Amino acid sequence: MRTSQYILATLKETPSDAEVISHQLMLRAGMIRKLASGLYTWLPSGLKVLRKVEAIVRDEMNKAGAIEVLMPVMQPADLWQESGRWEQFGPELLRIKDRHDRPFALGPTHEEVITDLVRREISSYKQLPLNLYQVQTKVRDEVRPRFGVMRSREFLMKDAYSFHLSDECLAQTYQRMHTAYCNIFDRLGLDYRPVIADTGSIGGSVSHEFHVLAESGEDAIAFSDASDYAANIEKAEALAPNVERPAPSQALETFATPNAKTIADLAEQHNIPATSSVKTLIVYGKADEAGNRGLVALVLRGDHELNELKADKHSLVFAPLEMAKEEDIVAAIGARPGSIGPVGLTIPVLVDRSAAVLADFVAGANKDGEHYRGINWDRDVTGHEVVDLRNVVEGDPSPCGQGTLQIKRGIEVGHIFQLGSKYSEAMKAAVLGENGKNQTMTMGCYGVGVSRIVAAAIEQNNDKFGIIWPTAIAPFELAIVPMNMHKSHRIPGVAEELYTALQANGVDVLFDDRKERPGVMFNDMELIGIPYTLVIGERNLDNNEVELKNRRTGEATLLSIEEAVATIT
Ligand code: ATP
Ligand code: MG
Ligand code: MG
Ligand code: MG
After folding, report:
1. Confidence tier at 397 by pLDDT (50, 70, 90)
2. Which of 168-177, 285-294, 500-509 bottoms out in mean pLDDT, i.e. has the lowest?
3. Is 482 in the pocket of ligand 1 (CB under 6 A)?
4. What is the per-residue pLDDT across 147-205, written as a single tens digit (0 to 9) for each?
5. 179: which strand partners?
6. Residue 452: CB within 6 Å of ligand 1?
7. How far is it, in rounded angstroms, from Cα 429 to Cα 434?
8. Contact partners, residue 299, CB within 8 Å, separation at least 6
């Protein structure tokens, strides 16, 4: 590809509405552009990465014996009514009507559609086991789309569904898919961990999530420093040895918060101008024996304009009285930013206010305590169940009984489930068994967040100059940067020659043939994160040499033109 015929679309400035580094770099490197909240257009460089990730995922699925299909995004409501999820799923399920007023959903996942397909197509035990997958756009009307393609409303997922006669057979395929997932993340060059997980709204018994380790991760994962034990924090809590704790009523309650007007009132009382740059506060509260509730602990996240904030659907977490200090609560309920999701009141606070002023602000809010009573929520604003995490504390013994517990932040990039017969029973998906009797199939399902992986990979691979792609998923493997080509007699010929030779050898090359200063070209190639740059300059050509630069190590090697092609290919 020649830069002159391409859309590089790089940006010098960091966009102000991007909170995490991957979102910032995806915008700056010209990978994505926002259409509307949680909806993104993939520009050519972004799409190239997305397709490379997809190809690795597809390859490993094929190797694991899964067969590719493609199901519609638009799904008839009656299938969802049959499984019971039309009611259960909540507002994340985007519901639409066609011109005949018939209800449909835009698929957030495809258990219903695949079960419907298989119950029609598969009639005998002889056709089992069967493992079908697709790579398809998913639609989820996320309550808080954020971090760019990390949590978007339309995203690309690889989802596979397996069908079996017995749970033993399901367990075998599950193990095979677990291995395939490890292969995928190994090939992507990511630092990841499979962890035991809850099955949530998808259902089933056994489940694992795959997390890419990153400080910006929304999830917390707990693992032992002395064994293979690793679980997501909710599961770790469920398995944790029981420590003494207050009764549930006192321990953790969630409440709806005041309307936006009340928040604006509070801000006014505290002289915070409506146009201030403010952060979202995740608030933890306490309750005394008399049941009076107040706010205590704060976790700041994100920049917002005060007048953008809407607080009608946010909730509060109340912790017991003895956890009066913020650190205590943060430690005790595992409330590092994001560790229990954005459960909490959203309060606008001036970023530069001291802790004392902040405390004052909260005290002021407490006087208005009545405003914080309301609907009881058992789910946080992302739809996750609110979990009491006080048993999962770093340095607790590990629930596995070996070593102590460590906690790290992770980005969920994959999730696999042994579903059992949840869907096949509800939707009557059965086959004729060996004994001539009808037998309900047992199922597994296996998801990979293909587009989320792109962002997660950047979270793990970047420096102050930009992205540093693992070669397997880089938009280009190598950039040719001819310095001041337009002023030179020799450089254009050498550059063209190398471009042709490298392409002929199957290298994915970007030839920067713009009339730009070398500095501009280097900056762009570093920002985009191309693993290798071949620099062609007058001085080195005097010795028939070109320079090969490694993006990750910064190392530069002089090579003869012939060596260059051989070394790279
Ligand atoms: P999360 O906990 O982050 O909301 P999930 O548990 O709801 O994810 P699954 O139903 O397990 O997601 O879907 C499989 C995979 O799809 C996830 O592991 C994740 O990688 C990806 N995914 C889910 N929601 C989104 C989203 N809104 N944007 C991008 N990728 C997503
Ligand atoms: Mg979700
Ligand atoms: Mg999840
Ligand atoms: Mg999940």
Report:
1. confident
2. 285-294
3. no
4. 999 999 999 999 999 999 999 999 999 999 999 999 999 999 999 999 999 776 666 77
5. none
6. yes
7. 16
8. 281, 282, 283, 284, 330, 335, 336, 337, 344
Q: Are 164 and 173 in contact (CB under 8 A)?
A: yes
**Which ligand has the nearest atom to the CA of 413?**
1
Structural tokens at position 213? 């380790």
Q: What one-letter code names the amino acid at 2?
A: R
CA of 449 to the centre of ligand 1 (A): 6
Cα radius of gyration rounded to whole Å, the chain: 27
Neighbours of ion ligand 4 (CB under 5 A): 415
Determine the distance separating the centroid of ligand 1 and the alpha carbon of 5, expressed in angstroms: 36
* Beta strands at 219-224 and 405-420: parallel, antiparallel or unpaired: antiparallel
- Ligand 3: distance of its center to the CA of 383 in Å? 10
Query: pLDDT tens digit string along 409-425?
Result: 899 999 999 999 999 99
Q: What sign for the dihedral angle of Cα 319, 321, 323, 325?
A: positive
CB 530 within 8 A of CB 510: yes
Atom 27, ligand 1: residue with shortest CA distance: 151
Using the predicted structure, report yes or no on whether residue 472 has a pLDDT greater than 80: yes
Cα gap 524→501, rounded to integer Å:
23
- pLDDT the model gives residue 238: 64
ipTM of this predicted complex?
A: 0.99
> How does pLDDT run across 331-343, given as a tens digit for each residue?
443 333 333 222 2
Q: How far apart are CA 79 and CA 77, in angstroms?
A: 5
The average pLDDT across 392-414 equals: 82
Running DSSP on this structure, what letter comes out for residue 44?
H
Give the count of beta carbons closer than 10 Å to the beta carbon of residue 232.
24
Give pLDDT tens digits for 25-70.
Answer: 999 999 999 999 999 999 999 999 999 999 999 999 999 999 999 9
What residues pair up with 103 in beta bridges, in sequence order?
97
Q: How far is the CA of 207 from the centre of ligand 4 (A)?
A: 9
418 close to 424: Cβ distance less than 8 angstroms = no
3-state secondary structure of 61: helix
Structure tokens given for 64: 């694991």
- C-beta 157 within 6 A of ligand 1: yes
Task: Determine if ligand 1 sits within 6 Å of the CB of residue 152.
Answer: yes
Considering every ligand atom shown, identify the ligand nearest to the alpha carbon of residue 109 and give its number. Answer: 1
- For residue 25, the CA-to-ligand 3 centroid distance in Å is 24
Sole residue written with tokens 């420093």: 225
Q: Is 207 in the pocket of ligand 1 (CB under 6 A)?
A: no
